[in-house]
Write the structure tokens for this entry.
Amino acid sequence: MNTAHHHDPLTRPWRGLTLLLLPTAVVAVDLNVLFLALPELTTDLRVNAAEQLWITDVYGLVVGVLAVVAGAVGDRFGRRRLLFLGSTGFLLASLLAAFAPSSTALIAARVLQAVAGATLMPSTLALITELFPEESKRGRAIAAWATTQFAFASFGPVIGGIMLHQWWWGSVFLLAVPVSLAVLTLGPRLLPEHVDPASAQHVDGLSAGLLVAALACTFLLIKTGLPAHGSPVTMAVAAGAGALVIGAWFVRRQLTTASPLLDLRILATPAVASTLTALILAGVVLAGTGFWATQYLQSDAGLTPLAAAVAFVPMGIGVAVGTQIAARLSPTIPADILIPAGLAVSAGSEALLVLVGESHPLLPLVLSYTLTGLGCGPLFAFGTHRLVSAAPPESAARAAALAETGNHVGSAAGIALLGTIGRVASEGIAAGSGTLTGSLHIVGSVSAGILLFCACLAARATLTARRRERTISR
């Protein structure tokens, strides 16, 4: 094992954590930062409706697809080294996105951003496990990481709207420049390196390829299988078949090979499996709701980008407050109870979107996404830690990447799925004021159902665990 800089007086765990939270925040912000910039961007680059969805959701897709592979590479070849490489790539790709001359160039730059971003998230979380060997401190640090990730993902449209008020749409990507430079400058002094070829598992290239292909087919199915996409039915069928066949091959290989890319046995625990499912589906709901809420605030509500950004602030505050409340309640109320209870609150909050209309254009909307973020707080506070704790230490980065994959694929799927569903609803209404009200109604109804399913799944996992504990005690 080679662990560098442990004796440097500047290598303090909490300073290192602060530095690691910077790229975590920027990668999360870039997931949704373009929501409020879409109208200006669409006019400037002459972007059509299909390209709008690609520009907003291709980033989350690629990050989600590659995060597990990047996590495995970090476990094998060095997590700090991978963080520095990713920071350099993210800086360069962000500059390309900021000054993209066309929609095609912007989509390509977003893909490059995502490739680099996929290396940052698992690296930051795995380095936290190095900085905090004690379980109690590590739990607090991971909770801070999760709060940063999910809160700043919600703040993405807010930050984009504020920057758009002062500068052009490309300025939203320049946040990565100072953050990347800070990581590259301070990282060698504040962050430890962990390279242990003896315990790190071999990176299975075939498994990595199968995972990438299966996730890509799944996303292609979502993009082409929904109404109004205009793609041939055969493409959707082929994508679905590919996802099933390749996904089954991937699972079989993980269960039979000596060095799996992902130890799927951790998913045999109901609490872990339900947590990962809930993280994916919560990403679907928050991204889809955020997409339509920000569009509605500017179109039907008639707000400027800056005013819309201010109106969207409560969602990020709700997420941050929810995670902190959950952390404070956890000593007396178990996470197994807080998670399903919070998801039930979020489900009821999403249902409030059906009340949005001419007589109540803003209050139900703001209340809905604020309480939705608040209710998801316990899931975000404990979900990632639960996945990382279930994996062996040598696989910390890829376990962290599993949570990241769930979040980003869920977010990308949410924009594609709820974005398309909402667009179909809006096209069925006569043009004019209120055209996005129908979109919010249908998105709110679908989202409420999704979160209610998550709450029931989490509650069932809790009951199963309790019954198993009683059986063992007897």
User: Anything to note?
Assistant: The first helix runs from residue 13 to 32.
